[in-house]
Amino acid sequence: MSNLIQLLPDHVANQIAAGEVVQRPASVVKELLENSIDAGATSITLIAKDAGKTLLQIVDDGKGMGVTDARLCFERHATSKITKAEDLFNLHTKGFRGEALASIAAVAQLEMKTKTEEDELGTEIHIEGSEVKKQEPCVCPKGTSIAVKNLFFNIPARRNFLKSANVEMRHIIDEFQRVALAHPSIGFKLIHNGGELFHLLPSNLRQRIVAIMGGKTNEKLVPIEEETEILSIQGFVFKPSYAKRTRGEQFFFVNDRFIKNSYLHHAVAAAFEGLLHDKAIPSYFLYLQVDTKTLDINIHPTKTEIKFEDEHSIYQILRSAIKHSLGQFQVVSSLDFDSDTSLDPSYEQTKHAAKRPSIELDRNFNPFKRNEDFNPFDTETKNKNFSSFSTEKPSHSQKQAWENMYASSLEQSKHISFQPKEESLENHVEVESDLVNGSLFDDDEISGNAETFQLQRKYIVTKLKSGLVIIDQQRAHFRIKYEELLAQLKDTPSLSQQLIFPYLMEFDVKSFETLAQFKNELVLIGFGFETFSAEEVKIKGIPSYLKEHEMEALFDKLIADFEMEIPSEENEFLHSFALSVAKSVGLKNGQLLKNAEQMNLISRLFSCKEPLKTPDNKLIFQTFTADDLALKFQS
């Protein structure tokens, strides 16, 4: 029988290892940036072309390598970080597996130039698919420059699985930001296709966060600082009012390494309990320093997952530290020192038990007794005590007195205007608008009195010939806006409401790159831009159904929805875009609708192509026939 087991060639083993380490261009960025940091670099430049598919180059001013090290670093399991297994529990560096350079060289064309401070000449090496093509001395500055060209050139199947250039570039920016946030004392540059996206000077932690996330970030930050025997915590959280419903600004760093940990995220969310709107997610930049002997970071190829020895204690300390800072910086509600202190009990009063109040009754008072001077609306009668009960049946004259009183109250109620109360209600309950003047529906479209009513400010109930129908108002408006937006994107642009003062918005680099992909679609649905650049986006016109304070939420949702992938096919993209906008600007449950508005919503819903279900396939209305109702009473 022939032998079946055989050793894989080195280049095949390297390609298999590359499948774990190198998943996309951003994986190369992460590994090479971490190597530069371990080399003691104070300035690192990342150059990318075609989102890393054509070129990824890292240039640093670290300590560099000699001739022997330059050749040996591309061998599997070659590392300067550890010498024995016990070193895994005392790690203070980034790349310790010794597989990164070998894996990258197995699936790309790689060129490296490196030189130490002591050497007069550096070393230049060219490798293609794990095969060394050239190694010779060269003239170069101290440090290391590694250029990775044509990633996955020898594995076409893997290259075909890469996403679009915009998506891959956003992943590169993600990795770049994580490393730059973890090391604010190091200067970083990011250049893509000849344009400089980031130029980060060495700074402190707050300045680095503001430089990456935008100038308006500074006013949102609440500092966190805590020192214990188990761990030390430093960093910032966003004020609760700036929390978003989308993820993207949640950063945990343990010993200067970015990690993902749902358990610690829950600790942060617990500290914000009662301070956030429904489904809002707090933003944070938290740096934890933990004894390396109490954690294990070698459980995932990308080293973004960590196991703690005492997770429960870290959870409690983190939660308490954030709650303390929110209270210390008066982010949470505090005591009201402007309240009337005369209503508060004095210190002497707290020593004694409360006295039982005395009640005096006018036992001779009879409400059915005619009194010419009695006026139920006289304000002087408010101080009189009418606490009297009678078991006698009222006489005809007494009944007449009550009727006169009721008639009098009706007459006075005709002159009482309740309009201010309705206005105050409208100030608190905002109704989605399709017109510039703020009215959701056009009253001219409705004639006659419709038999509809709103149930719990969530459902609209109206009758049919065979029974009744109950409509979910939020889902109905979602369907309506979706079809209207889709028609505008395919045919004619929407009307734009011009703003008196342009609305200024700032985005970080990654968000702006995403936003730029659908600028034309924003114009078609009614947005007008005065300036549109990475420095600022100035909006001069908005869709007529949108309000200024709703724009932040709309853009946050659009960026979050298209952050990972923008559909390549036009129809699919228009569908996804209309879906996101319709969800953001649609009518919400809890909003009060007038009768005419209810009828207009019903009319527009049943004019839609698909009135039964929402674009995401949820039921919009339910019908109940007379027979269905009769079944409910068969008992």
Can you tell me about this structure?
The chain is α+β, with helices and mostly antiparallel strands. The protein is 32% helix and 20% strand. It folds into three domains: 10-200, Histidine kinase-like ATPase, C-terminal domain (Heat Shock Protein 90, 2-Layer Sandwich), CATH 3.30.565.10; 205-328, 2-Layer Sandwich (Ribosomal Protein S5, domain 2); 443-622, Ribosomal Protein S8, Chain: A, domain 1. It has 18 helices and 22 strands. The strands form five sheets. Strands 5-4-3-6-2-1-7-8 form an eight-stranded mixed β-sheet. A hairpin with a 2-residue loop joins strand 4 (122-128) and strand 5. Helix 8 (262-271) packs parallel to helix 9.
Give a brief outline of the structure.
The protein is of the alpha+beta class and 635 residues long. The chain contains 18 helices and 22 strands. The N and C termini lie far apart (80 Å).
List the helices and strands and how they pair.
Layout: H1 10-21, H2 25-38, E1 43-49, E2 55-60, H3 67-72, H4 100-106, E3 109-115, E4 122-128, E5 131-138, E6 143-149, H5 156-160, H6 165-182, E7 187-192, E8 195-200, H7 205-213, E9 221-227, E10 231-238, E11 250-254, E12 257-259, H8 262-271, E13 284-290, E14 295-296, E15 307-308, H9 311-328, H10 396-413, H11 419-428, E16 452-455, E17 459-463, E18 467-472, H12 473-490, E19 496-505, H13 509-515, H14 519-524, E20 528-532, E21 537-543, H15 551-561, H16 570-585, H17 595-605, E22 621-625, H18 626-632
Parallel strand pairs: 1-7, 11-13
Antiparallel strand pairs: 1-2, 2-6, 3-4, 3-6, 4-5, 7-8, 9-10, 10-13, 11-12, 14-15, 16-17, 17-18, 18-22, 19-21, 20-21
Helix pairs in contact: 1-4, 2-6, 6-13, 8-9, 12-16, 12-17, 15-16
